[in-house]
Write a structure and sequence with these properties.
The protein has 17 helices and 18 strands. The strands form five sheets. A seven-stranded mixed beta barrel has the order 7-8-13-18-15-14-12. α14 packs across α16. The chain is extended, with a radius of gyration of 33 Å.
């Protein structure tokens, strides 16, 4: 890129507040009216999509049954540990989100509306160290006794009041709120069995919350000595989106890991990266949303501060004309490309027109067997698409029909995909996936299509592999035994990034004023004892079959072996020049092409004429030139 006049770029840092880009320009780039750049980044799109802060209220039942001791810990302790875990995660990954905690069925009350038996422990606000320490204090010592003394229990309460207060907390927040959620933790499946009026008022209020964009999630916990029957009450209270089914709710949780897994699955709103049409043919179109199921998690960006006052500093870029020294406005700058030694200048509109291939969306090209898709086709991380009924009615039915037929015939759909305006088109393979749930009816994989990006002809490479010795049958069979013994079920969600976790633990220790950070277990470290126990004998047999006697993988090769390796490399060098062919080193020296010869060939020649063969390639070339008297 260049300017139509000679110019230079100057960067100025000053202690100002935030980015100067307007919200509209950021939003327009997200939906495809941006600066015309070809590439796009999932993280960038994800962050731009958010128009307000995420907000979450934990509503926790504090009746006596929730604090009854069980084999490990009470249901109340499970809830507090979940809330603490969410706060700890948010304070690191999304500290601008808002979180509140509300107790109900308490003897004491604390809320702005003076409703009885509802206690707001933490108002809707950003997470901080004080809030985490307050939750940790609730989990210390005799939890049940301390809670009874401080808050008390009551069998009389109104879920209508609880939902009304939660709605009020969202409405009274001074900050701009985007996604609103209420997570209701309880082990009571029929809280108002003796009052039909309260049941009806609660249903009505839950419907009001849904219509106002507030999601109510039920985090039901297994009651002591019984089962949780959602049909008794909550089936009419929990209103789910069209793409979910209230009848497929997970089984009630009994352990912290189960409850935390469900809380985390609901912790983040399913934000789409983009919303685009999907054309299956002339006059046949549906709408889909594109999601990123997997994103690389990175450490938070470093914020630079002015050392004088700790104010955040922001880089500001200014273009200045080299000839006149005047500041150039965006309208004064043009783009140019070098072609044939000349600079070709384009207006911004011309650049955008050249980059425009088609409107954003998917276009079906045809179908191929699933075996067509090769592992080496990988170009970039995949995406995931799901139907969007809000834009084109009937998209869900058409999408389901396509999904079911591709699954039944075991085929993939090949499509052209243009992510946004001015983006280059890509060929993608849509790989169908059935919905999968675990034993507790928690969804582990959604139904939809994975969007696998395919390479173009220019992206493929043909490699010439060096010939190597082939393994014999005994070695292959022994390798199969090793693989069988060390096979295990690998789940990425079971392995945390140790570098990230160590970073988070250090920040957490500083924020909570702890003496030392919590120790991080590096689960990526191979378990040598387990490997030796399961396959130690077979591994030794495999080594004896493959490697020569006395082989030491950690030892340095002996002089004899090093000489053998050098001789082998010389033979390979001669073979590369042609079987039985002789390299005319003198001819290469006269033509000045000695650098094209391999080190092995140069050493072979120097050895044949009795000269020293040690040194780098440049030194070997110089020695050959000196031998022939070439400067």
């Amino acid at each position: 890129m260049a300017m139509d006049r000679k110019g230079t770029m100057m960067t100025i840092c000053s202690p100002v507040r935030k980015h100067m880009a307007s919200e509209f320009s950021t939003w327009s780039e997200t939906v495809g009216y941006g600066d015309g750049q070809e590439g796009y980044d999932d993280d960038d799109l994800q962050s731009r999509y958010v128009t307000g802060k995420d907000s979450l209220i934990f509503v926790i039942d504090c009746s006596e049954s929730m604090l009854q001791p069980r084999s490990e810990e009470s249901a109340f302790e499970l809830c507090i540990r979940c809330a603490k875990s969410v706060l700890s995660n948010k304070i690191i990954s999304s500290d601008k989100d808002l979180v509140g905690i509300v107790f109900f069925a308490t003897e004491k009350d604390k809320n702005s509306s003076d409703f009885k038996n509802v206690y707001i422990l933490q108002e809707l606000d950003t997470p901080d160290a004080r809030r985490i320490l307050e939750l940790e204090e609730l989990l210390e010592g005799d939890v049940s006794g301390k809670f009874t003394a401080k808050f008390g229990h009551s069998r009389v309460f109104s879920l209508y009041d609880v939902l009304w207060i939660s709605s009020n907390m969202f409405a009274n927040s001074p900050q701009k709120i985007g996604h609103k959620r209420v997570m209701l933790f309880t082990n009571n499946d029929n809280p108002h069995s003796d009052s039909e009026a309260l049941r009806q008022r609660t249903r009505t209020k839950a419907k009001d919350l849904f219509e106002n964009g507030i999601e109510l999630e039920l985090m039901h916990i297994k009651p002591p000595g019984g089962a949780f029957d959602i049909s008794n009450f909550y089936q009419d209270v929990i209103i789910v989106p069209e793409d979910e089914d209230i009848g497929c709710l997970p089984d009630p949780s009994d352990k912290f890991e189960e409850l935390l897994s469900r809380v985390r699955s609901k912790d983040h709103k399913k934000r789409s990266l983009m919303n685009v049409p999907f054309c299956l043919g002339p006059g046949l179109e549906m709408n889909v949303k594109v999601f990123a199921l997997v994103r690389s998690t990175k450490k938070g960006a470093v914020v630079k501060l002015d050392e004088r006052n700790n104010q955040e500093v922001k880089p500001r870029t200014t273009y200045i004309c080299e000839d006149t020294g005047t500041i150039l406005m965006p309208t004064d700058i043009q783009s140019s490309y070098q072609f044939g030694g000349e600079r070709v200048v384009f207006e911004k509109s011309e650049v955008e027109a050249m980059k425009h291939f088609a409107d954003p969306g998917f276009a079906l090209m045809g179908f191929k067997p699933k075996s067509f898709l090769k592992r080496y086709f990988y170009v970039k991380p995949a995406h995931f698409i799901y139907p969007d009924e809000s834009t084109i009615i009937g998209s869900t039915k058409l999408f389901q029909a396509l999904l079911q037929r591709t699954l039944a015939r075991d085929v993939i759909a090949i499509c052209r995909f243009v992510p946004r305006v001015s983006s280059a088109p890509s060929f993608v393979a849509l790989v169908p996936q059935k919905e999968q749930v675990d034993d507790n009816k928690v969804q582990t994989a959604p139904a939809g299509f994975h969007v696998i990006y395919l390479p173009f002809a220019e992206d493929l490479r043909k490699l010439k592999y060096e010939e190597t010795p082939r393994a014999n049958e005994a070695q292959i069979d022994k390798a199969k035994e090793v693989v069988k013994k060390l096979s295990f079920k690998f789940r990425p969600e079971d392995f945390e990034n140790p570098a990230l976790q160590a970073h988070y633990r250090n920040l957490e220790a500083l924020a909570l004023d702890r003496d030392a950070p919590e120790e991080v277990a590096d689960l990526t470290e191979p378990d040598s004892e387990m490997i030796d126990r399961r396959a130690g004998k077979i591994l030794k047999e495999f080594v004896n079959l493959v490697y020569p006697a006395g082989y030491d993988p950690e030892g340095k090769p002996s002089k004899k072996r090093a000489a053998a390796l050098e001789a082998t490399s010389s033979k390979r060098a001669r073979a590369a020049a042609g079987e039985g062919a002789t390299v005319d080193v003198a001819e290469h020296a006269r033509n000045g092409t000695l650098s094209k010869l391999t080190v092995a060939v140069l050493k072979e020649f120097l050895k044949s004429v009795g000269l020293r063969t040690t040194g780098k390639k440049d030194e070997l070339v110089a020695a050959v030139k000196e031998h022939f008297g070439i400067a």
